[in-house]
Amino acid sequence: MAGRWLRHGRWQQVSLLSGRSSLRLFGAGKGEGSRHCSGSASLQKTEADPGVTEEEIVVPRKKTWDKLAVLQTLASTVNRDPTAAHYMFQDDPYLIPRNSYEYRLFSLSKESGKNAARYIVNEFPRFFEKDIAEPHIPCLMPENLAPQIEEVSEAALKERIQLRRVKASVDMFDQLLQSGTPLSLETSNRLLDLLCFYGDREPAREDQSEQKEELEESEEAAPDQRKRRGRSWKTSDFIGPKWRENNNAERIFNLMPERNAHSYCTMIRGMVKHGACVRAHDMYTDLLNDRHTADVYTFSALILAVPEVKENYIERWELVEDLLKHMVQQKVQPNLLTFNAVLKTLRKCGGMGKGISLKILREMKALNIEPSLATFEHLLGIFYKSGSMEIIYEVMDEIEGKTFVAQDPDDANFFVSAMRICHSLKDVELAYRLHKVLETGDNWKLIGDAQQQSLYCARFFTLVCMMEQLDVILKWYKELVPSLFYPNAQVMWDLLQALDTANHLEMVPQFWKDIKQLGLSNRPELLEEVLALMAREIHSQETQMSFANCAADIKSIFETRERNQVPLGWTASALGNIAILFSRVGRIQEACNMLELFKRTSRVPSDKVMNEVLTCAKQSNTPHQAVELVKLAAAFSLPTTAKLARRVIEEFELSEEQKKTLEDADPQSSDSSDSDSD
Amino acid sequence: MEKSCLRYIAETIKNKWFIRPAFRQFCVIYTFSLPILSSKTQKCFSTSTGFYNKEDESATSTDSSGEKASENQEKATPGNAKKNLLNIISEMKVELSSKKTFQILKTLKTKEQTKDQPESMESASSMFQKATADSKAKRSKPLNPELVEAVSAVASSLPFDRKQTVSDLLAQLRKHEEATDAQKKGETTNIRSQRIADMKIGKRRLTRGVSRPSSQISFDDDDGKVTCFKLVSGVSFFSYLESSPSLWDLELANQIAAVNQKPPRNGFEEMIQWTKEGKLWEFPINNEAGIEDDVEFHEHIFLDKYLEDFPKQGPIRHFMELVTCGLSKNPYLSVKQKAEHIEWFRDYFQEKEELLKEIDDHEKETDISLEKKSLSK
Fold it and tell me: A-chain residues within 8 Å CB-CB of B199?
């Protein structure tokens, strides 16, 4: 019997248990006919009999686990692999990015693939009705994006607001208005929320917007970082559609029979969000006239709008101060975002920001509001502008060892700005401290998007290249590339300089490979630098061999570029350096080909190049090449042609014919030599 | 007339040998009709036979002897009777074994002296058949005929309009069955709407889940609310803010959460993300996942606590125990639905409470008379 029980499912087993317990109770009953009685009947009988029913079945409580506990523990055991690309690319080895371009392309492709799938699922929900998952997985099912209620009613309006259909909501509102249906204040306010938040434009759908944003971002993220930051400083982070005058939000606001504080607040926030800052402040005056009070977010928005309203630094601060006083009057408790808004505004108040910002910090402390990273970022920004960057040491003392969570959308900017200041101060120790803070706890999450992360790493690594020994530099290089960032041309340039300083130029070919892989081989300045460094001094034979291979590689890049019709013009120095590198390892034919290229691209080789090649020709004992060289020099009408010709005549065993050609090639030189001898 | 009728019913109810088979059958059918996994049916039998060891002989004879009994009845009882009584008797013919029918009819005769019963009885039985036929026609999916029979047996034990009782009980059972079926198979229309509802909830939950890690958001909100509450209490917009977060609040939370959101760095973090999105079985693996959120299994099984409002003994109690027995084996209904199911019966029987009290009185009488009878035998 027991075996049979075991085979049955959980449900059955327990119900059986319950059955058994009741059976036992039967047994405890008086006996006569109790087996035929219903359970309760016998139960009542036993209840009359004290002591028997004392025994109570205590069902043990189920232990509850956090659903993430196991996974979080496991995840904490995995460290970053510095040699691998980011985890998101590890599905397919073919799609592992090797440079920042591919990184962006592949991550965007992955994201847009997801969005495309989601779009299809939402667009054609009828093909995705089948729900095979158990338990049900809501996020894999099509979302309901079409309004269900057709009739004209407040419920329909609410539904459209819920679905964030801006235009449909406005239409529904107008229809309701025409039919004379009164709307509740709450629904009107919800509608205003929607209109103000999206600035009376249809919001991009969730499955489309993200991609767009990222694309925009990647476009913006083009090398000119300064421009981008400058813009975000100038305006109050205003991106997106502008607030139009008399748009639907204003129209509906004016049509509303009664308005409460929320109606005003949402209008103000919408106006600030969409750049109508002056109007927002006017609206605030209306709010005051209507004897309402604003909420804390509205005040934050108003404070952010101040720089757009007033031109003068002093006037700006006065307005902010006024607003803060209003908050006190209206008994609105400020929060972190309010203070961050004040500091953000102070960044645009010139030199006077320094003193006030410290006062603001004290105020925060008095109110027991813990500053977030954005607070520090604004602080650094204010002091950076006025040239006193030393405040970062105090900030660093403050944040060291702490873990932060995002509390303000601006929090993600902190690490990049702080690293910029480290870079400006050329303080590598400070940079290490900052990096340590980043690695504390979950702070790495606050480094911002991929763009900010790579900017941070680039600044950090550049600083390290500047200040550290080569072995430390290489350690950091291995640590950061390619798992955290893909160096840009500037970073590689700095690295080459560091190699030069450390006198380890033999490592250049190794980094040339990295440069190629990073997709930087189309940067002429980098190619020039690599060639120049390699050609500058004479190294051991082995190194020279690898240099020559490297040079051949670079030459092929120039040539393929030519074929692809991407202009990557030869320069005299590039041609010369390659020729030198070839001639140093005795690849005379290739060196001569380079000289030919000089002719073809009408560049003029330097004396050094000619001499090096000539030496090479002598070493390989090819008088023919030597004569060709002199001919070439004559064709370029180089001033050193005569010297070269003389060297050839002296050093090579030439046939008569060759001698003659030499003299033919440069009759002047013989003249001049004659005159010299005279 | 009605009083006498009730007395009769009380007597029949008291006679457990008569009632029990019907109940027993009902129990078996009831549990069978519910979508229990096939492997469990055996167990149903074993439990039910555990309750009723001795009555098997009588139970087996009921069906075959039903028609005979009705014939006998028609012959035996002439004259007119009121509908209630007729219903009961017509029902009786279905369930009683012939021998017992005779016995009961005898007692009926002696006690009530009803002379004009048979005619009406005939008409009543036909009426009953019609009624069941009607109700069958109405149903899209006919209930198990055995189940119908059992229900009618239960109904007969109650002193009300029998047809009404039968149809009420059947309706409830059918509803129950439909619900079970729907939840088992996933009825398209229901699920569709349900799915939409789920999705909305899921989405909101997701955004909240995302925003939660940044504890400051909640701190901010609290902060705002507390001060609002303290200082601006009574201002109308506050209550509005309280009711639900506005679009602004939601989007601000999303924005801040987005700062914290990073693509997973390893497989485990990806699994964490999937868990948050609800795509993955939660660890530790729990085979009750998705059945019901915050209900433990024992609440599905031990339903006795819902029976407190029912009489402590008697046929209703018995019936309800069988209902709970069946429900406890049904994995497709939620605890709430089960409780509602039982509640419906409670309300139903409470409506009829007065009548039931009268029955109680009669029970006592008949008890005595039966004892006397058995003694005399």
Answer: 138, 141, 143-144
Residue range A544-557, pLDDT digits in tens? 999 999 999 998 88
CA distances (Å), A191 to each of A44, A197, A243, B349, in order? Answer: 62, 10, 16, 50
Phi/psi at A403 (5° precision): -110, 145
Residues of B in contact with A135 (CB under 8 A): 289-291
Whether residues B317 and A14 touch (CB distance < 8 A) is answered with no
Q: B86-111: string of b/e by CB count within 10 Å (b at 16+)?
A: bbbbbbbbbbbbbebbeebbebbeee
C-alpha to C-alpha distance for A538 and A540, rounded to whole angstroms: 7
Structure letter (DSSP) for residue B234: T
H-only helix segments in chain B = 2-14, 16-33, 41-51, 56-76, 83-95, 98-112, 118-138, 145-157, 162-181, 188-211, 215-232, 236-243, 247-260, 267-277, 297-301, 315-328, 335-351, 353-376
* CB distance A415 to A453 below 8 Å: no
Residues with Cβ within 8 Å of A368's Cβ and at least 6 positions away in sequence, in order, are: none
Tokens of B9: 């019913």
pLDDT tens-digit series, residues B286-330: 777 666 666 777 888 888 888 888 888 878 888 888 999 999 988
Angle between helices B267-277 and B188-211 (to 10 degrees): 130
Q: Look up residue A660 and give its two tokens.
A: 């003659």
Tokens of A133: 């998952």
- Per CB-CB distance under 8 Å, the chain A contacts of B236 are 260-261
Give the closest residue to B346 by CA, choosing from B356, B335, B333, B358: B356
Q: Is B296 on the interface with A (CB under 8 A)?
A: yes
Rounded distance between C-alpha atoms, residue A100 and residue B12, angstroms: 89
How many whole angstroms separate alpha carbon A7 and alpha carbon A651? 102
Chain A residues whose beta carbon lies within 8 Å of the beta carbon of residue B297 = 10-11, 14
CB contact under 8 A, A75 and B216: no
Cross-chain Cβ contact A143/B198 below 8 Å: no
DSSP B12-74: HHH-HHHHHHHHHHHHHHHHHHS---GGGHHHHHHHHHHH-STTHHHHHHHHHHHHHHHHHHH
A 10 A CB-CB count for A96 gives 16
**pLDDT per residue over B250-291, tens digit each?**
999 998 888 888 888 899 999 999 988 888 888 877 777 666
ipTM value for the complex: 0.75
* Rg (chain B; Cα; Å): 29
Band (pLDDT 50/70/90 cuts) for residue A211 is: very low
Cα atoms found within 13 Å of the Cα of residue B75, Cβ hemisphere only:
7
Supply the pLDDT for residue B11: 47
**Contact call for B329 and A12, based on CB within 8 A:** yes
pLDDT classification of B125: cutoffs 50, 70, 90 = very low
Q: Quick check: B275 and A71 CB within 8 A?
A: yes
Distance in angstroms (rounded) separating the CA atoms of residues B6 and B9? 5
Cα separation, A505 vs A176, in Å, equals 78
* A643, pLDDT greater than 80: yes
The full 3-state SS of A325-364, as one line of letters, equals HHHHHCCCCCCHHHHHHHHHHHCCCHHHHHHHHHHHHHHH
Contact between B240 and A189 using a beta-carbon 8 Å cutoff? yes
Contacts of B260 in chain A (CB under 8 A): 405-406, 445-446
Phi, psi of A413 (to 5 degrees): -85, -15
CB-side neighbour CA atoms (13 Å) of A399 = 29
pLDDT digits (tens, 9 = 90+) for A395-428: 999 999 999 999 999 999 999 999 999 999 999 9
Distance CA(B85)–CA(B114), nearest Å, equals 11
